[in-house]
Amino acid sequence: MATSPFAKSTSNPGQGTIHLTLLPPATPTYSSLNYAYPLKLLPSTPHILVVPENEPPGDSPIPTHPTHVPLLFLLSYGGGLLPPDSLSIALTLDALTRLTITTQGFTKIFPSPQSAPLATAAQTLQASLGHHSGLLIAPDPTQPFDDSRYVQKQVFEIADTASLGVLDWVSEGRRARGENWGCRECRLRCEIWRVDESDRSKKTLLLRDNILLSSTKPEILARRMDNLGLFGTLILVGPLFTALGDFFVKEFDLLPRIGGRDWGDRSPMTSSTGSLATDDAGKVEEQRRVSQWRRERLKEEKADGVLWTAARVRGCVVVKFGAREIEGGRRWLGAMWKEEGTVGRDFGEGGLMCVR
Question: How far is C-alpha 110 from the chain's CA centre?
């Protein structure tokens, strides 16, 4: 029997490693990128970072910009996981590196086979972020089919100056086939730990977010979801995401409340003579544009059945949201991200693929 000229793989099925390091002076490169069936990790065209010419020295939230931000697609054969498939990824970002991780479509969770009804698909991510590094995880929604079981765990250990943005959303299933939260079990867990780089054994829990969608009868879970076809969580922490987190909190504070003022009667600021001050004309015009954008967004939120909230939790901004349908959730999140600008500017168009 002929022997293979290639070394025998030491990777376990579904296991992957990602290690991004910085080559002098500021070029990110993969020092390690390995994966084994059914996991696929595919690098794509990176996002070139452009530092504004008018940016004064020291004004950036990080001391040095890498030249570009790599884009990595996380895929699985067949576009999903069939229980008992299990994926396990170890991710390391060295200091001053950035990475965007996304997908090319829904992550489908197929039904557990009849021969093993308790079989569960699983995905685990263990990530370590060095000083001034940045990670954006922006996949398409997870789509658990009827009678499926899925468990996901993400653990992030981040340095004091690291930045992390994690989007995690799940849909009702295949609406075209009449599925409505018919999964047997869907568990999503995310932990964020602050690590002392001088002694990595010292770490502080910043956030632990748990989502459990489970019921012995599908109609019970569907009733609990109250006509939502999509439910998601967005977690933002670190200097690169400070502006985006502030934007979400500000917009939530400005949402109309019962007995409050509607945006329809807001008007631009005027001078004491009733005319716009010349020096403030640019600012007033921007206020008009933002007010118009906000009014249109609120109309779309109402039409799409979007509900959302934002809160600060131990240095993180946590956004919870739901929508009647997936496309409505995409429109809302895309409108927020594009208006504020951080994702496209600092992590590239790849980070916006999930909201197109």
Answer: 23
